[in-house]
């Protein structure tokens, strides 16, 4: 992967960037995504944010290599601290865990109010959906894809009705699995949740050998609820 050829998951993220927007890519690593978006004529300008000095320096080198110093500003800082309020109209955060992405959004609320969010969690997309729901964001689009044996989700959101896109069905299941993804039920979606259920059932089996405690009972009940939710969606 480089700034001329992205991975499938990052190409999916880029596909939701509005034309001629000013973007911020948080946790940009080598700045491949912002360089690619500029070179393809998708974004007008970009900010690449990195909290770790090594990847920050790699991003600076990549921007210079592509002669994009006047259009891609590489900044060192924690999450959305690299931005000023209203500075960008699209923010991408990819390749992190859902809870970490949600915490970055929570800490930087004032920086994201008028921006489109394009988020690609490696795990626990439910954490992001919960944050969006609690903070008045509308989930516009969801996509799930498989690449190199791993399954990824991409969520696109803008400020608006947090219940838009959700049906009048089981809200708990839709927040867990994705309201739009639950409707489409694609092959990667089915594979992901079949694997999750298999793991949960193994955990439940192992729990039979453990000493009974209130915490164990709570964990068991949580897994049983999740399994039931997933089975209902997959068998719909």
From TrEMBL:
Single Gene Ontology BP annotation: methylation
Protein name (record): SAM-dependent methyltransferase
Gene3D superfamilies documented for this protein: 1.10.287.1890, Vaccinia Virus protein VP39
Organism: Rossellomorea marisflavi
Pfam families reported for this sequence: TrmK
Domain of life: Bacteria
Residue intervals passing through the bilayer: none
SUPFAM superfamilies in the cross-refs: S-adenosyl-L-methionine-dependent methyltransferases
InterPro entries named in the record: SAM-dependent_MTases_sf, TrmK
Keywords: Methyltransferase, Transferase
Signal peptide annotation: none
MF annotations from Gene Ontology: tRNA (adenine(22)-N1)-methyltransferase activity
